[in-house]
Every structure is written in structure tokens, then in C-alpha cells.
Amino acid sequence: MVNVIPSEIRFLGTCIFIVDMLCHVEKTAEAMPSSDWTPFEINRSLPPERADIVIVGGGVMGWSIAYWLKQKEKIREGVRVLVVERDPTYSQASTVLSAGGIRQQFSLPENIVLSIASADFMRNINKHLSVLNEDPVDLQFNHSGYLFLASENVAQIMEENYKTQRYVGAKVALLSPTQLKEKFPWINTDGIVLASYGLENEGWFDPWTLLNAFRRKAISMGVYQCFGEVTGFKYTTNSMNTAEGNKLDFQRIKYANVQMPNSLEYQPVECAIVVNAAGAFSGKVAEMMGIGLGLKDTIAGVPLPVEPRKRFVYVVHCPDGPGLETPFLIDYSGVYFRREGLGGNYIAGMSPEEEEPDTSNLEVDHQFFQEKVWPRLAHRVPAFENLKVKSAWAGFYDYNTFDQNGIVGNHPLVNNMFFATGFSGHGLQHSPAVGRAIAELILDGGFQTLDLSAFSFQRIITQEPMLEKNIV
Amino acid sequence: MLKILIPTFMLFPTIWLVPGKWLWTATTAHSLVVASASLSWFKWCSETGWVAPNLYLALDPLSFPLAVLACWLVPLMIIASQNHVAHEPLTRQRTYISLLVSLQVFLILAFSAMDILTFYVMFEATLIPTLIIITRWGSQTERLSAGTYFMFYTLLGSLPLLVALLYLLNDTGTLSMHTLQYIQMTNPDTLGTMLWWVACLLAFLVKMPLYGVHLWLPKAHVEAPVAGSMVLAAVLLKLGGYGMMRMMVVLGPLTKEMAYPFIILALWGIIMTGSICLRQTDLKSLIAYSSVSHMGLVASGILIQTPWGFTGAIILMVAHGLASSALFCLANTSYERTHSRTMLLTRGLQMILPLMAAWWFLANLANLALPPLPNLMGELMIIVSVFNWSSWTILLTGLGTLITASYSLHLFLTTQRGPTPQHFISMDPSHTREHLLMALHLIPLLLLVLKPELMWGWCF
Asked: Is residue A380 within 8 Å of A335, Cβ to Cβ?
């Protein structure tokens, strides 16, 4: 009799058992083989242990490359891409501190073609970068064009550039001083002999939006993001002899060490390819691989000639300034300005002529504005004589000290490091096209749509500069 | 038997006592000698069904091809692992090779076991070194999950097997294969007997693997280091097939009805896993799924229980062991150079490593069952015997053959042909060691074309 449990109590017992099981559903799920519970605390912000392509640098160039790599893989999860960015606030990143202009008025046909392709991408940006169920991308692309002003000595160069630009397909017009005065009455045409005005695909846009659009789309396609700093690489060296008997050391990166912010913890990420898109700090990343630390007069002794150069941008307010049609004006004296927003604000700046500002910080030199920029600005646009400086910031150019043009392609000795850096101030506007080019180089073995082999590292070794006659 | 077993046991002192710089040379040489000695098992000079018989260990035409394969594979595994293990501390290297050798010991004992319970114990014992190899020497975090899947899938099947074997022991009084073949089993048609039938075969179906319980295989193959992948693909899967063939003896007339769903699952699995292969982005994962596909054919051949089915199954097991192991070695050569298993990044290798491209070609042709290689012979015999069982299966097996050919060619064309990426500018040229490895895989396969009687089994 004692062994018989009354049915009510048995029912109650079953209920309690089921409720108990439901409370333990999570524990049960964690015990199943497919869950990722481990007794060891895993730092979730660590990058994955293995990635196929590690992109060093999460600026617009890095994310553009990541997007295009995922775009080009023909099968889902074809390649595993990891973007490593050391500063989640992007406080020193050149992308977001840029003035955001895009122009086709270069002297090198390669640059013009890159700009046209990028402008085309940005005009149809929602065809490329829209994510399902998210807001469409609004780049705030102001198509106001660039206006270059030439004095007596440089008018010849401007005419030659104009011919190249028209030949390649950019829509540019040359204006005489009278035409200039007619179109833009607020300009003082004193000293101007010729002006070149971009009619289409030129202007400025919001760099933050472009960066975030690339990032959002890339992450939706499965790119891994890690906030950490690449502090070194583990590589294997393979020595070979050339036909003349010289010894060459070929290196192959096997692991990229990613160090977590504010911590000693680091994760060696096993990778097949490393893309150096670190912008102003690419030179340091290249040095981690010993590029440039070899003997002089050898390929190993040629460093990556990219260093940070500080440039200032000043926001000024002028109530009687030029109107809405103001282009991005670049004077022959080096000063430039553009309209910012609709409230009479403008962004102005100038490339320093003699001494370069100190690059250890991003402090703004207001004296520079007072002494150099404002006089020239006021000379060109008389209305700017009474303006008020609202704010200012400084950003780094990833300045290519060799010829101020980008370096795209892989290094001859470090087999699997690709460069996409050194654009010296026009990287943002070329980022969509360069990203596609690098993705083609990696996945297709060669350039397909645009041939950027002129930008390879070879020219640095053979010391043949591709000089741009139109650097701002 | 002892002339192979004792030298195999003596591999352990060799590994641990040889000075460091001679470790790899000595172990490779010693295991090659053992492998060559094991070839003596090919000489069939027995009037009875068994050779080297004693109460506990004997070989018969079913088991000695697989035992020779197990012995042959150990020097190959040692040669293949030399590169990636050489950078570790000496003791760890010795441990690694000891694990490989212990696998060989367990495998020889498993294939020559005369008592089904001995076979069961050895079958389980092979799990331990493999688990250690996968979880300790694999290269990614996922290896822990792979080890768990591997262990628990197999154990899920083998506990019922233990119960079934003990029941059989209780029922018939013996588990010795010598005597079991003469016992007439009269299995009543009850649910209990059906469950017993499933329990007998479940462990081996999981090991083969059968399509529904195959999830452990891609994980284990991909996360394991090259030697682990080789031994898994070449021999451990065959343990399942061998076990099924031994158990068929006692399973009696029940199999006629009970095997139906499993045959269908196996045939369907060929097509499903073949299609999965076409969509794979990871090289090793593709080869792993192709293993499942081939083993599906083997499983259906065994379950059909006809002489041609059994013969085809054994031939395909041996041939697939060599071909699949060769493919894993090739994938490893590519991985060691580029550190990536993604097929999109390891393309156009023919331009850089043309001789290796020849081996790739041969291994892929073996995989897609090109005549006159034994892969085709095995497949044909199984397809024919399954067709004899039911004409409709020709649709499944024919489609399966087509898909096998397409993914093998896709594998070859993606890795070898096509544009060579820029980051392959300078790559290690093919080492002689790698060529030796591939030759030792594929030359036996080619030789078997000339004398397939060696591995036909006893049914032909």
C-alpha cells in the first residue's frame, strides 16, 4: 500500500518536473553539442582565430575593399574577411576628418578614371550598398563641381590637363576671366588667367555616411570586424637566388597579431592575405614586416613611402558669402574653400608651403589661418573679408612622399601583403574604385575593370614617379 | 601475424628512444618496413577461410586488405605530418607519432580480431587517439566542437551495439567469428528483434557514415591535422564497413526487410552530399563530403548482401581509402603554402606547381571513378547489384555518379586551372617528400588495377 502513489500527487510531481525542466531549458541548450558554452571565459571582442583576408585599417578604403571582396565571392561565405580597426571612435582617421570632395580634374588619366568610376558608384550608391529593411544611404552628394583657378605660369599646365580630362571622359569646361566673373560674380578675377570648372560628377559628400554605408553593407554580408591593433606579423622566409646570384628573401605572412585595446591580450589571426589599408599609419604597418629595413640599394631596403601629414580645415561663417552655387574653389596660391551646409558656413584650408606641421597630435594651428589662409581667401573672394572662424580641425593625409599618388598592389618580396594606401588626400574619393580593383586583384588574379598596374609598388623600387601636376 | 604485430609494438621504443634529429627518419623507415612486411599477407596460402588462425587473431580475405591498408598508411601519415609538427618541442613530436602508431596497433587488432567483442573494444579504442589528435593538433577553435561531435555520434551508436552483442553472447553462447558463421539464427519477427538488428548495425552506420548520421564527419575531417584526416578517411571509415560485413553473418533473414530504409537513406545520401560538395567553399570540407558520398554507396552495397555487393564494397573501400587520403594530402600541400583552405584563394596552382597538378589530376580522376581504376570497379559492382535488387535505384546511383564526376572536376579546375592570384608569386616548390607521399598513395592504386583479386574478398 505504501508503494502506491496517489494519482493527484503523481500529476503534481509531473507538473513540477516539467516546470523544473523548462527553467533548465537554457542549461540544457548549453549542454548540447551545438552550443558554444565553454568553461573558459572567452573574450568576445577577440577576432576569429583564422581569417582568409585580414584588412589592416577600418577607414573607407578598408571597408570598401571588404565590401567588394564579399561582393565578388560567387558563393556564400566564400572568403572570410576580417577588418581590424584600432580606434572605434575614428578620432584620428583620415576618412572622417576629410573635406569630402570628389573631382575628376587630375593630370594623370588613371586618377581621372578612378574618380569617374567612384562618382558613378556614389551616384548609384543605393544599388550597391542598400541593406534590406534598413534606411537607404543618403550621401548628401552636392554636385557643385570644382573650380580650379590658374595664374599666368600654370595656365599652360591647366590647358594640358583639360585636354587629358576631356579625352578620358570627364566633363570639364575652361572659363576665361570674363566668363568666370559672369558666372560667379563674387570672385575677384585679379591674377586669374584661366579657370577649369567641373560640370558633372564633381562636388563633395559626407565621408562618415560613405564609411558607414560600406561598413553596414559589408557586415551584413558577413565581414568580421575587430577593434584592435595589429602589432606584428608572424611570417616564414624563403630564400631564393636570382639569375645573377643575388639572394632574395621572400616572406609570407602566416599570422597577424591583433592586440586588444588597453590590454596585453593579443590574438594571432591565421591569414592567407593581409591588405595594408592603414592610411596615414601604413608606413608603420609595413615596417612590421621589415619592408624598408633591409640594406640600401636592395628591394628589401625600399620603405613604403607613406607618412602622415597634418592638414587643417577651418569652418568659417560669412553672412554675405557666395551663394548656393559655390563650387569647391581651389586657388593657384594653394588656398581652397567650399560651402558647408545652407547657413552661410564654409570650409577653408590650405596646404602648407614651407614647413610641415607637427604630426604627433591633431592640434590646430589658428595662426596659420590668420597669417596664410585668410589673406589669400579674402583676396580671392572680397566678401570673405568679414568672416568669423567657427571651428577648426586637423586630419592626416596618408602622404606618399615619393609621388603623392596611391600605391595599389602587392609587395614584390612580401608575397601576401597588398597595399591600398598613400593616396595623399584623394583616397576618399577613389575608395569605391580602388576597393573593387584590390578585390579583383585578390580574387581574380588581376585587374579586370580598371587597370591600376601603374600604381604598383614597382615604381617606388625603380624610382619612376608618377607625378600629379595638380595636388591640393 | 606476430611478425607484423611485434615490430608495430616496437615502434614505440623506436619513437621514444631515438635521438631527436633521427626521429622522423627512423620512424618513417621502421613503419615502412612494417608496411612492406604486411604485404606478405597478400599471399593467400590457406585452405580454410582464415589465415594465421589462432583463437583470437586471424585474417581472412575480407580483413587482410584493410589491415594492409592500415599498415601502409602509417608511414604515409608520418611523412605527411613532418612539416607541420617539426616546429614543436621534441616530446610533443614523439607523442604525436605515438598516437599515430597506437592507432595502427588498434586497427590491426580490430581487423584481425576473431571475437566480435574484441573487435568492439578495438573499434572504440581507435576513438581515443583520433580524438586526441583532432582536439590537440587541429588548428581552430571549432576543433573542440568537432571532437565532441565525433565522440558522441560514435558512442551513441556503439552503446546499443554493446548491448546487442551481449544479448547475442547470451543467446548463442559465443561471439567468435569462427563459430558464429555456422550458427543458424532464427530471429522471430518481434519488435525486440528488430531493435536488436538496428542496434547491431547502428554503430557501424554512424561510422561509415550513413547520410542521416554523417554530421560528425565534415567537422572531424576539416578540423583534424593532415594525419588525422588521412587516417579518418582511409581506414577509420572502413571499420564501419568491415563491422557491418561481419555482423551481417548473424543478422539472418531479418535483413531482407529491415535493410530497406537504410539502403534508401544511403542512396539518397549519395546525391545529397554530392550536391553539397558542389557548393563547398572549403577544400577539406569538399573532400570530406565526397567521402560520405562514396561510403553511402559502400553502405548500400553491404546492405544488399549479394556476392557482387560485398565484393564491390570491399574494392571501393580500399580504393576510396587510397584516393581520399591522397586528396587530403594534396589539400594539405596547398594549405601549408597559403595557410588558407578556401578554394577561392588557392586557385591556378598548375602554373606554379605543375608536377603537383599532375598528382591532383590523378587523385581527382580516382575520386570520380575513372576506369580502369578500382574505384570504378567497386562502384560498378555495387550499382549493378543494387540495380538487381530494384531497378529504380539506377536513377539514384546514376545521378550520383554524374554529381561525383562534376564535383571532382570542379575541385580540379578550381584549384589548378584559372587565373593565378598575385599572392602566389613565390611559393615553396614541391618538396620531394610531398611527391613521395603522393606516389606512395597512387602507385598502389594503379597496381591494384592489374591484380584486383588481391582485395576482392571471399565472395568472388
From this structure: yes
Q: How far apart are CA A48 and CA B171, in angstroms?
A: 54
Beta strands in A341-449 (DSSP E): 345-350, 388-400, 407-410, 417-421
* CB contact (8 A) between residue B419 and residue A446: yes
- Give the model's pLDDT for residue A2: 55
Contact residues on chain A for B149, CB-CB shorter than 8 A = 33
More confident residue, A6 or B224: B224
Q: Which residues of A touch B422 (CB under 8 A)?
A: 409-410, 418, 441-442, 445-446
* Secondary structure of residue B313 in the 3-state scheme: helix
B152/A272 Cβ within 8 A? no
Question: What is the pTM assigned to this prediction?
Answer: 0.88
In the block, residue with C-alpha cell 599570422: A255
| Cβ–Cβ under 8 Å, residues A260 and A49 | no
Of residues B455 and A223, more confidence is placed in: A223
Question: How far apart are the C-alpha atoms of A215 and A223, rounded to whole Å?
Answer: 9
Here the cell at position A316 is: 568659417
For residues B314 and B387, the answer to whether their CB atoms sit within 8 Å is: no
Which among B412, B411, B397 has a CA at the least distance from the CA of B278? B411
What's phi and psi for A162, nearest 5 deg?
A: -60, -45
All residue ranges of chain B with pLDDT < 70 are: 52-53, 460
pLDDT of residue A67: 96
**A218 Cα to chain B: minimum distance (Å):** 18
DSSP string, A419-442: EEE--TT-HHHHHHHHHHHHHHHH
Q: What is the pLDDT of residues A352-363, one digit of tens each?
A: 877 888 888 889
Q: Which of A49, A410, A444 sits opposite B419 (nearest CB)?
A: A444
DSSP string, B351-409: GT-HHHHHHHHHHHHHHTT-TTSHHHHHHHHHHHHHHHH-TTHHHHHHHHHHHHHHHHH
Q: Which residues of B are less than 8 Å from A48 in CB distance?
A: 141
CB A78 within 8 A of CB B342: yes
Minimal Cα–Cα distance from B139 to chain A, Å? 9
| Residue A28 confidence (pLDDT) above 80 | no
Question: What 3-state DSSP class applies to B308?
Answer: helix
A254 within 8 A of A235, measured Cβ to Cβ: yes
- Residues A61, A434: contact at Cβ < 8 Å? yes
pLDDT of A373 = 92
R_g of chain A computed on alpha carbons: 27
* B91 exposure class (CB count in 10 Å sphere: 0-12, 13-18, 19+): exposed
Supply the mean pLDDT for chain A.
90
CA A334 to chain B, closest CA, distance in angstroms equals: 40
Check A416 against B423: CB less than 8 A apart: yes
Contacts of B5 (CB under 8 A, 6+ apart): B105, B108, B109
Q: Do B419 and A445 touch (CB under 8 A)?
A: yes
Q: Would you call A90 exposed, middle or buried from its count of C-beta atoms within 10 A (0-12, 13-18, 19+)? A: middle
Nearest CA among B303, B317, B153, B156 for reference residue B219: B153
C-alpha cell at B356: 603537383
Instruction: Name the residue among A330, A132, B86 with its Cα closest to residue A338.
Output: A330
- At A161 the pLDDT is 92
User: What distance in Å separates the CA atoms of residue A105 and residue A207, rounded to the nearest whole number?
Assistant: 20
Extract long-range pairs of B159-164: CB within 8 Å, 24+ residues apart.
B160/B198, B160/B199, B160/B202, B160/B203, B161/B120, B161/B199, B161/B200, B161/B202, B161/B203, B161/B204, B162/B120, B163/B199, B164/B196, B164/B199, B164/B200
Contact: B344, A50; criterion CB under 8 Å: no
